[in-house]
């Protein structure tokens, strides 16, 4: 993995592993997202999530990843839920969504 970290979460979409958030040696929390393709044995840096956090949970549903809760820097608990659409990685390095060809993006789920 390119970034050293603990307390991150991971999910699998289309055979690729996405490692999300976490903390490097307790000096900060991360918003980093990295993708691992086991067929190519290659890591790719992906778009950071909007909210840096550690101790989060993530799940994949219908090709999208949902980052749930966790803690922000200073041990502040979060109730934020964000959605990530990883799309697909094509040969020229651009990321596209399968339907509609929208760019890879993070979105915030409306909360109460």
Task: Report what the structure shows.
With 112 residues, this protein is an all-beta fold. It has one domain. It has strands at 9-13, 16-20, 33-37, 42-46, 57-61, 64-68, 71-72, 76-77, 81-85, 88-89, 95-96, 105-108. It has a four-stranded antiparallel β-sheet with strand order 1-2-3-4, with no helix packed on it. A four-stranded antiparallel β-sheet has the order 5-6-9-12, with no helix packed on it. A two-stranded antiparallel sheet has the order 7-8. Strand 7 and strand 8 (76-77) form a beta hairpin. The radius of gyration is 14 Å and the shape is globular. It starts with 8 loop residues before the first strand and ends with a strand. The relative contact order is 0.19. Residues 89-104 have low confidence and may be disordered.
Helix content: under 10%
The helix tally amounts to 0
Structural class: mainly beta
Mean pLDDT: 82
Distance between the termini: 35 Å
Low-confidence stretches: 89-104
How much of the residues is beta strand, in percent? 35-45%
The largest sheet, given as strand count, sense and whether it forms a barrel, is: 4 strands, antiparallel
Alpha-carbon Rg, integer: 14 Å
Number of strands: 12
Q: How many structural domains?
A: 1
Q: Using the alpha-carbon principal axes, give the shape.
A: globular
Spatial ordering of strands, largest sheet: 1-2-3-4
Name the helix and strand elements from N-terminus to C-terminus, one letter apiece. Answer: EEEEEEEEEEEE
């Amino acid at each position: 993995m390119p970034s050293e970290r603990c307390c991150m979460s991971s999910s699998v979409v289309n055979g690729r592993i996405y490692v999300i958030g976490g903390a490097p040696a307790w000096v900060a929390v991360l918003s980093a997202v990295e993708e691992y393709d086991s067929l190519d044995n290659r890591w790719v840096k992906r778009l950071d999530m909007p909210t840096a956090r550690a101790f989060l949970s993530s799940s994949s549903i219908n090709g999208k990843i949902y980052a749930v809760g966790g803690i922000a820097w200073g041990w502040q608990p979060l109730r934020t839920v964000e959605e990530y659409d990883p799309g697909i990685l094509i040969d020229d390095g651009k990321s596209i969504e399968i339907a509609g060809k929208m760019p890879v993006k993070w979105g915030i789920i409306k909360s109460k």
